[in-house]
Amino acid sequence: MTIKRRKPRNASLRFQSFLESGDITKTTPEKSLVEGKKRCSGRNAYGRITVRHRGGGAERKYRIIDFKRTVRDVPGKVTSIEYDPNRNVRINLVVYANGAKKYLLMPEGLRVGSSILASEKAEATIGNSMPLKHIPLGFSVHNIEIKPNSGGTFARSAGAAAQVMGKTDDHVTLKMPSGEMRMVLGDCWASIGVLGNAEFKHISWGKAGRRRHLGFRPSVRGMAMNPVDHPHGGGEGRSKSGSHPRTPWGKGCKGTRTRHKRNKNPLILKRRKS
After folding, report:
1. Are the C-beta atoms of 166 and 137 separated by less than 8 Å?
2. What ranges do the domains of the chain cover?
3. pLDDT tens-place string over residues 139-164
4. CB neighbours (10 Å) of residue 150?
5. In terms of C-beta density within 10 A (0-12 exposed, 13-18 middle, 19 or more buried), how is residue 241 classed?
6. Which CATH architecture has domain 3-201?
7. Whose CB has fewer CB within 10 Å in the chain, the N or C terminal residue?
């Protein structure tokens, strides 16, 4: 996929760019794999805002993705490539030999008509899924489970993949997309390949309206607030906060490490910023 730039017919189009959609082969989702999505606008179960600057946006329906690869030992065929409004990576519709239909994340190199398989005896080819202990060293994997049979949680965004670095009796060492080195149980499943749509991070949205369509609301700088509202607020004219950048509640942000040394995970061999 390539990034296209808009012709600057007006000020809002001058810096806009978008991804080509020529790879999409189907525009309407599979009805049996779609469900309604309730908006929460950054609120928790009590209705309190826990994530600021969220709300509005275009209506969207949720595509049910098979992160667990539940159809195993049955070959499947990719029948279409589709756009998912809920994530930045394409999804593909897979029809299995037993008639089952599932949505999967789209890795780079997979095409319509490609065959895939989820099995412990599957070949280590793009799109196939198997336990980590059976994947050769050096291979890139995505949709990785953190616990057996829990469904993929790691490396699920556009262009993401982890690399298999080593193996022990029970664990497999992975280099995560963040650079972190961690160990995962060898019985956890993962899919082979690097997820596509990697150019997504280079998109220039160009205007605030495009971000509003995605459900992002405006944010106000802490320096523009009063002292009662933010640690950076107050002062005559523009003034520095006098300390490291902080959240409205006084915690460090923008790179400040907040994890306590007591909470060290023995499975994490190297932190991403160490």
Report:
1. yes
2. 3-201
3. 999 999 999 999 999 999 999 999 99
4. 12
5. middle
6. Beta Barrel (2.40)
7. C
